[in-house]
Q: What sequence folds into this?
């Protein structure tokens, strides 16, 4: 295929790839190791690259003194509900955009792209005022509504790419067999699309789970905080307690990594198909 | 379709429009009794703020200093991943991991690694004999900028690698066979076949990444919070700080500036890259 590889070439290649892999994974390793040390051992010399005694004290502290369980539940609820609704709305919009021609189509696509260029936090102030007029500040339902709006544009564009890869003939055949257009969508198209839809949901979920600025602005009471907001609170206090911080970071990262590990192939496909095919 | 449009209109476009008019009014949360129109005052406030020139310099450094290494390393990884090898799939999945983490948390991870007293970076550099004394990375503006750039390169390389790899795989093998027959060396093949062939993807990826990195306050926010002494603020982290201080008028003015800068950049970039492209894409908007 692409020319021959020399032994030296192979050696360089794998050395470099190996170094990059180590560099990629080291920060994750380090935060995990830190979180598993006994709180006192974090601040001792020489630095231990493997915990001398394993301890779950940092984790216990999170659920004891800090109310981390509540934050996790808040994040889970908000990210799941917003993720599901945003994915459902986007699936239908993507279907319409992929299968029908209409006059405002390019304008709508453009509008979706513009929201990608202009970040959500640019209008934080006005959004806060709007939400307080609607009495939705410091309200999980309100945050869910905002997150749906943040997720929908990109998710629609991504799903539209998946729909475009499925031949029209599939639904046409189903419709000849007597299914309505909607029936064909639900019974024939969606099952084929399932991996793409699951990936889109995971993408939305992870984005909502990780979102910081909107939730910091909109959620102020302790019982309503999401995990990133709580972590931000850990920073704001003058001295960072790296023991609980590392444990909290691990607990925040872990679920998203598991989800990404499942969906990375499809997310990659969703990201690249748009750009490569133009 | 309609629900999607409604959501985006109410929670994204409405605040943007509302924000645009705020930029021309006196709008401060500390005193909402006076919200009169003040013309360009908020913009003048931005330009005369002593932090503004540092913020601009940092933003430029942040964008260029992140994009260039990300592109070069990402390109190299993509070239090396093109040929199948055992465990390639696993390798790709592993280097994809940073992508699951939020910019804010990445900031926290690196903040801990670059800690002046108990940071692992200082420890490793001392063990390797590169430095004698621990460096207070995040306390000095220059080393702090270097540190946030390293964190961002760590995060962003994967995206380039993935996009470029996908583009590389679309190049027909025949092109390489023909080049090999003509006796073209490795460098010539790279510059005369590979790069021209994937130019569109490269340009598009760079454009997207510039916009994202420009709009990516999360990492700096988590890592330095703009400190020490406002020296690592970029436009967007600074804007968030001003919003949190309650001066919505000034923050909105800054927001409009961001949009204007990005728009001008996008138009210039598209024009510049389109000129060098063949007719295939020239007609598309």
A:
């Amino acid at each position: 295929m692409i020319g021959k590889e020399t032994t030296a070439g192979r050696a360089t290649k794998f050395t470099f790839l190996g170094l990059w892999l180590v560099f990629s994974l080291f920060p994750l390793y380090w935060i995990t190791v830190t979180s598993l040390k006994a709180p006192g051992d974090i601040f001792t010399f020489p630095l231990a690259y493997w915990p001398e005694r394993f301890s779950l004290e940092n984790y216990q502290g999170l659920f004891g003194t800090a109310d981390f369980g509540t934050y996790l539940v808040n994040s889970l609820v908000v990210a799941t509900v917003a993720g599901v609704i945003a994915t459902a709305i986007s699936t239908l919009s993507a279907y319409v955009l992929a299968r029908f021609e209409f006059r405002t189509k390019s304008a709508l696509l453009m509008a979706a792209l513009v929201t990608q260029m202009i970040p959500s936090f640019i209008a934080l102030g006005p959004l806060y005022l709007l939400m307080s007029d609607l009495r939705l500040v410091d309200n999980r339902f309100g945050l869910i509504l905002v997150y749906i709006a943040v997720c929908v544009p990109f998710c629609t564009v991504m799903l539209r790419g998946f729909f475009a890869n499925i031949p029209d003939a599939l639904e046409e055949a189903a419709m000849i067999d007597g299914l309505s257009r909607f029936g064909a969508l639900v019974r024939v198209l969606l099952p084929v699309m399932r991996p793409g839809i699951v990936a889109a949901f995971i993408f939305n979920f992870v984005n909502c789970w990780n979102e910081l600025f909107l939730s910091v602005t909109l959620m102020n009471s302790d019982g309503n905080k999401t995990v990133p907001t709580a972590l931000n609170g850990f920073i704001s206090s003058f001295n960072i307690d790296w023991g609980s911080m590392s444990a909290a970071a691990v607990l925040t990262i872990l679920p998203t990594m598991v989800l990404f590990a499942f969906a990375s192939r499809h997310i990659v496909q969703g990201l690249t198909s748009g750009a490569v095919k133009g | 379709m309609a629900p999607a449009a409604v959501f985006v209109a109410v929670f994204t476009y409405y605040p943007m429009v509302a924000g645009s008019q705020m930029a021309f009014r006196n709008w401060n949360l500390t005193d909402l009794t006076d919200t009169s129109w003040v013309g360009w005052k908020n913009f003048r406030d931005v330009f005369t703020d002593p932090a503004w020139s540092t913020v601009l310099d940092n933003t430029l450094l942040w964008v260029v200093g992140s994009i260039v290494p990300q592109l070069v390393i990402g390109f190299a990884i993509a070239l090396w991943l093109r040929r199948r090898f055992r465990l390639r799939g696993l390798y790709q999945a592993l280097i994809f991991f940073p992508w699951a983490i939020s910019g804010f948390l990445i900031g926290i991870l690196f903040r801990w690694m670059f800690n002046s007293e108990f940071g692992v970076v200082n420890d490793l550099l001392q063990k390797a004999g590169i430095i004698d004394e621990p460096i207070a990375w995040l306390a000095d503006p220059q080393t702090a900028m270097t540190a946030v750039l390293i964190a961002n390169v760590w995060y962003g390389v994967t995206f380039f690698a993935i996009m470029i790899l996908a583009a590389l795989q679309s190049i027909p093998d025949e092109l390489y066979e023909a080049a090999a027959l003509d006796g073209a060396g490795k460098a010539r093949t790279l510059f005369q076949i590979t790069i021209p062939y994937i130019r569109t993807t490269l340009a598009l990826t760079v454009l997207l990444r510039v916009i994202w990195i420009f709009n990516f306050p999360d990492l700096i926010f988590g890592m330095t919070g703009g400190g020490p002494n406002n020296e690592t603020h970029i436009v967007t982290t600074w804007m968030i700080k001003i919003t949190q201080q309650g001066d919505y008028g000034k923050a909105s003015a800054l927001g409009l500036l961001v949009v204007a800068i990005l728009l001008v950049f996008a138009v210039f970039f598209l024009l510049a890259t389109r000129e060098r492209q063949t007719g295939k894409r020239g007609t598309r908007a």
Q: What stands out?
A: Residues 16-48+246-278 of chain B form one domain. Chain B touches chain A through 91 residues (CB under 8 Å). Chain B has two domains: 16-48+246-278, 52-238.
